[in-house]
Write a structure and sequence with these properties.
Order of helices and strands: EEHEEEHEHHEEEHEHEH
Structural class: alpha+beta
Helix content: 25-40%
Oligomer: single chain
Length: 236
């Protein structure tokens, strides 16, 4: 097959109606759009199209749909012996939507090389959370926030954005709880965007963009209510 032609990213209007392009013609890097805003309608339209924002402080919004796309399923979730022992140990508690901004802020603080979790992103996703479209799972020890993960939900899609830990293994605990709790609640697609070595060790694998978009179209059409979810480490 010949090399895929690089489509030109579209320029989105500020405060206009968000119309995102079909990601399929774009190269593997996946920059599909530039500009626009971070209103809830814009963000939800992006995630429904298989697109997410990722940009640094002082930059205009950049919108991405990479190929391949990383996901995780309960059947492929890998829990090592040492992690299994950690999951059985007492001393930590799981919470759902207890401190969304705290989790998101901690995710940004944990990245010494810079972060896309800039103040305008925190404000935008906090509004999504207030509207019931974004959620956080927290791990606490003696009341202190020691790990967590947050993301965006549309129907049966959950797009996990970032996770953090302040104690050893607590981001892994958060991810295992997220996978098992979400799929038990009816989520069908758990997107983690990029497959790092760390995430691969936990069972993250990749789909082609075409495969991802096909699963996405089905998932976003489902009805799943996560507002009263009770996080659990029990296998699905």
């Amino acid at each position: 097959m010949g090399k895929r032609r690089r489509a030109t990213p579209v320029v989105l209007p500020i405060r206009g109606t968000p119309i995102f392009p079909d990601p399929e013609p774009y190269d593997g890097e996946g920059l599909v759009a530039i500009g626009g805003d971070l209103r809830p309608a814009t963000l939800l339209a992006a995630y429904r199209a298989g697109i997410f924002p990722w940009f640094g402080e002082g930059e205009v919004p950049l919108w991405w749909s990479p190929d391949p796309r990383a996901v995780i399923d309960p059947e492929r979730l890998h829990v090592s012996r040492s992690l299994a022992r950690r999951l059985r140990q007492p001393g930590f508690r799981l919470h759902w939507n207890g401190d969304f901004v705290g989790v998101m802020t901690a995710c940004g603080e944990s990245r010494a090389t810079g972060t896309w979790i800039v103040p305008e992103m925190i404000a935008a996703y906090h509004e999504l959370h207030r509207l019931g479209h974004a959620h956080s799972l927290e791990v606490r020890v003696d009341g202190a926030l020691v790990g967590g993960v947050y993301g965006v939900q549309i129907g049966g899609l959950f797009a996990a954005e970032s996770m953090f830990h302040r104690q050893t293994d607590m981001s892994k605990v958060a991810l295992v709880a997220l996978v098992r709790s979400l799929f038990a609640a009816g989520v069908e697609l758990l997107d983690v965007q990029f497959a790092t070595d760390h995430l691969r060790s936990l069972g993250v694998h990749e789909l082609t963009r075409r495969e991802y978009l096909a699963r996405l179209r089905v998932a976003v059409g489902r009805t799943v209510d996560l507002r009263t979810l009770v996080p659990s480490l029990e296998p699905v």
